[in-house]
Amino acid sequence: MATTYRDAFRVPEFRAMWLAELQSVAGDQLARVALSVLVFSDTGSAALTGLTYALTFVPSLLGGLFLSGLADRFPRRELIFCVDVLRGCLVLLVAIRGMPFAVLCVLVGIVSLLQPVFKSAQLALLPEVLGEEKFGTGMAIRSITIQSAQLAGFAGGGLLIAVFDPYVVLALDALTFFGSAVLIRSRLRARPASASVSPSTKRQPSWGLLFADRTTRTLVLMMWLMALVAVYEGMAAPYAAAFGGGATVVGLILAADPFGSVVGVFVFTKLVPESRRQGLLGPLSIAAAIPVAICLLHPGLVVSIGLFVIAGAFGTIVVMVTTTALTTRLPDARRGQAIGMGNAGLTTATGISPLIAGVIADQTSATQAVGWFGLVGTAVAVLLAVAWRALTDTGGALANHKAEGGL
Fold first, then answer.
1. Measured between alpha carbons, how far is 150 from 148 in angstroms, rounded to an integer?
2. What are the pLDDT digits (tens) for 71-82?
3. What is the pTM of this model?
4. Which residue from 8, 66, 333, 380 lies 20 to 30 Å from 243 (Cα-Cα)?
């Protein structure tokens, strides 16, 4: 019998982890809106506002590379608790009126730096909480929750700032971290740090762990490809301008991906049994890239937004399924660090794609730049789909990790 959302929510520890992450993600989105408004109103500089917004993302790459291993060295419940309390305290400092801009940047950067530590510990702990049978369903719930919280956070942030002071919104963000910490500490049972591993595995770098065999290598590349294909998010402003659209159109383009993600993941998990999901990764990857390639035809604005909804739906499904597959294949004692490295690659791809597309757009147009990313992405997706099909035909995707010591 297929595992339902209700089955996952029947696990008390999962309910606590879900609610804790929901608070944190919504609070983060509120803080991004509040920081943008706060910095721009204080400095009048669009460049400094953009710098502050970037600081809510960029340091997480360094955190994924250098700090995610903490999730394997320390008990994960205690690590999540400490990270949440620390982030809450840092955001409270940001909410102090008159904070010098340089200090504010440092504080915001540290909060971003700690995000991968939280995520690595959480994802590494989730299979223990739910068990292998319910883990895929739990990941689907996470995907829907995160995308929904992002939509609500952006919309709610603008509404709250229209009613309250940005400093009040930042204080609310701090409270979400403290609330998350309380839930994790009080509702999750204590577990020791992850089990020790053999010396040979311990010496293996996490990049080597992710690329140790064809199965994990293909999964990682599929996941990273989805970040490159979603270039339209980073190109939202120039893409809207190509059609004469303003801030409202930019908002619609940014909302298209998470909206498609919520609907797509919900429908996919309801209609497709978990046993068949990994086998569909190839076609799903191609389906995520093709709508973006259609932008080469310079479709109208309404059609473009519809294409981004479709691309967001399939792209998020691919990220969800690949993350689930990777997490179950990684040895527990290295799972946190490897997940952190994988997310660091995802963050890098997300940041690089609009940068390259911007250079292309300066020489052509925003629609052409986005479309070329989609076309190249489609070609790469086809190659990965062929490789994945070969693995599934030989049983590699389903059994290879057992034959190779847990990967």
1. 5
2. 888 999 999 999
3. 0.82
4. 380
